[in-house]
């Protein structure tokens, strides 16, 4: 992949396919029409009270509105003038007392350095081209320990959310938190739920972590999870559209329920520039979920060394000693974990060209996180 192509991927990320309509409208109000008086920041209710604080003015309604407008513009200007990409700060290791973490620490420094050098070489960007709220929409916030965690589905995110719930005091143990409570309970805050001041402060003062996975393994894991088991969302929404477009002479039952999507059909959908249904976070590129060349992550973990990386991170942030990262599967527990051998079984049904195109699709993730190019 050429330097110019890499820069194009990094700098021209289009958020529209990911952004819910209400979030898009809110973002456009803040970013595209900031010259007009707006009440978005001052009327949005946040538990932290930051938005309310911005609205505490005295005098006539006209004066109040003017002051609110000025406050909004000041915050927006401050955020826009931030240095992009953000500086990588040295890890604070003052809370790590056990010498057994030397290997994990050395690995972490290599990953941080590699990603930083990659972005410095290929990033070529001083300002983000995407909406600010979209850039941070996958980042979870844990205020007590000052953590920002960017969610990468199929890279241990369910158990990470359990850990964040324990750290924030929402649960005594990660072991008894159900899958539905993790993903549908809305217990955890996301960074895009804060106002600009709250986002700016946390990006500059909290430890930022991202956990990634070999792109091909992550892709196969997502397919197995969403299409090889009953699913009331992915089958009717994605399955029906995929079967309709990519399966000649599909039977009526398959067209009606969307079940039984084949891996090859799924890959045809993934690689189609005119997909019949949009992308999904479970197989979206990490470069478009977490923006690692704009948001400089302090900690880069990998699914392949998840337990060691995660428990070292818990040491760094001063987590309770009894809290350990859970390693169980809470869905399809009897299924074999997706690993390199499982991936090869799925890839063997694809042509060499199709395998190469998958690599090309995820090439930026392979390069920036230093994953070995798969044997195609």
Structural notes for this entry:
The chain has 376 residues and is mainly alpha-helical. Helices cover 48% and strands 5% of the residues. It is built from 19 helices and 5 strands. It has a 5-stranded mixed beta sheet. The longest helix has 21 residues. It starts with a helix and ends in an 8-residue tail after the last helix.
Total beta-strand segments? 5
> How many helical elements?
19
Structural class: mainly alpha
> Tell me, what's the shape?
globular
**Uncertain runs:** 14-69
Radius of gyration: 22 Å
The run of helices and strands is HHHHHHHEEHHEHEHHHHHEHHHH
Mean pLDDT: 81
The percent range for helix content is: 40-55%
Family: Belongs to the sulfotransferase 2 family.
Organism: Vicugna pacos
Protein name: Carbohydrate sulfotransferase
Region (Disordered): 1-24
Question: What attributes does this structure have?
Answer:
single chain, 376 residues, five-stranded mixed β-sheet, 5 strands, 48% helix, Sulfotransferase, transmembrane helix, golgi apparatus, transferase, carbohydrate metabolism
Brief digest:
Belongs to the sulfotransferase 2 family. The protein has 19 helices and five strands.
Layout of SSEs?
Blueprint lengths: L2 H9 L9 H11 L8 H4 L6 H5 L6 H20 L21 H21 L9 H4 L3 E4 L4 E4 L6 H11 L11 H6 L4 E2 L5 H10 L1 E6 L2 H13 L6 H13 L5 H6 L5 H9 L14 H4 L9 E4 L3 H11 L23 H8 L4 H10 L1 H6 L8
Parallel strand pairs: 2-4, 4-5
Antiparallel strand pairs: 1-2, 1-3
Enzyme class: transferase
Family: Belongs to the sulfotransferase 2 family.
Protein name: Carbohydrate sulfotransferase
């Amino acid at each position: 992949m050429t330097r110019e192509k890499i820069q194009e991927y990094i700098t021209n990320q289009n958020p529209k396919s990911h952004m819910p309509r209400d979030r898009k409208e809110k973002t456009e109000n803040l970013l595209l029409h900031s010259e007009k008086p707006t009440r978005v920041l001052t009327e949005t209710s946040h538990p932290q009270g930051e938005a309310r604080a911005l609205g505490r003015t005295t005098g006539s309604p006209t004066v109040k509105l003017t002051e609110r407008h000025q406050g909004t513009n000041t915050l927006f200007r401050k955020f826009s003038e931030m240095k992009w990409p953000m500086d990588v700060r040295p890890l604070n290791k003052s809370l790590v007392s056990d010498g057994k973490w030397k290997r994990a620490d050395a690995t972490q420094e290599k990953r941080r350095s590699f990603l930083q050098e990659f972005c410095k070489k290929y990033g070529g960007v001083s300002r983000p081209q995407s909406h600010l709220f979209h850039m941070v929409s996958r980042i979870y916030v844990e205020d007590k320990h000052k953590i920002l965690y960017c969610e990468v589905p199929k890279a241990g995110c369910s158990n990470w959310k359990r850990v964040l719930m324990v750290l924030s005091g929402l649960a005594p143990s990660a072991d008894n938190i159900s899958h539905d409570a993790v993903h549908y309970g809305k217990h955890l805050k996301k960074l895009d739920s804060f106002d600009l001041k709250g986002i700016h402060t946390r990006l500059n003062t909290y430890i930022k972590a991202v956990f990634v996975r070999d792109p091909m393994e992550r892709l196969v894991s997502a397919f197995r999870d969403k299409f090889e088991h009953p699913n009331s969302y992915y089958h009717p929404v994605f399955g029906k559209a995929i079967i309709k477009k990519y399966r000649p002479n599909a039977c009526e039952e398959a067209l009606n329920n969307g079940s039984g999507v084949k891996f090859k059909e799924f890959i045809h959908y993934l690689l189609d520039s005119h997909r019949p249904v949009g992308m999904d976070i479970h197989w979206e590129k990490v470069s478009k979920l977490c923006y690692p060349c704009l948001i400089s992550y302090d900690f880069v973990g990998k699914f392949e060394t998840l337990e060691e990386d995660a428990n070292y991170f818990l040491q760094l942030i001063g987590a309770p000693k009894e809290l350990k990262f859970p390693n169980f599967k809470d869905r399809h527990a009897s299924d074999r974990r997706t690993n390199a051998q499982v991936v090869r079984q799925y890839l063997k049904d694809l042509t060499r060209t199709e395998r190469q195109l998958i690599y090309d699709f995820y090439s930026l993730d392979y390069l920036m996180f230093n994953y070995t190019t798969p044997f195609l």
